[in-house]
Each structure stands twice: as structure tokens, then as C-alpha cells.
Amino acid sequence: MEKVKYISMITAIFTQITGIIFLFINIKIAFGLFYVYFFSLLVLLVVFIKSRMDEKKEDDKNDYRDY
């Protein structure tokens, strides 16, 4: 999961910057890059939610408050 998170972050940063540059050069390529940017943000959001759910399950399993 960590590799997917880092790849998605780097892709989001790279496509956002490149998309802004291509807005002045070719608008069709810029829109394509922004689609890739939003897709990478969506993947990043799913990875963060999944990792949070895994942490929550682990915390619930190791809950020793009811002694």
C-alpha cells in the first residue's frame, strides 16, 4: 500500500504541474493530464481510507479498556 500511495502522490504532483503548463500549449493534452490527476487523487483517497480502516481494526483488536 505504501508504494501505491507514493506513486499516486508523485503522479498527482507531476500531472498537475504538467497540466498547468500544457494549458498554454495544447488544451486537449491539458485536459487529459487533469483527468489523470483526478484519477490519481481518487486512488490516493481510497488508499488513505483503506489504511485508516486497517488501523481502526487493529486498534479495536488490541483494546484493553475493559479490565
Automatic annotation (TrEMBL):
<keyword id="KW-0472">Membrane</keyword>
<feature type="transmembrane region" description="Helical">
    <location>
        <begin position="7"/>
        <end position="25"/>
    </location>
</feature>
<keyword id="KW-1133">Transmembrane helix</keyword>
<keyword id="KW-0812">Transmembrane</keyword>
<feature type="transmembrane region" description="Helical">
    <location>
        <begin position="31"/>
        <end position="49"/>
    </location>
</feature>
<protein>
    <submittedName>
        <fullName>Uncharacterized protein</fullName>
    </submittedName>
</protein>
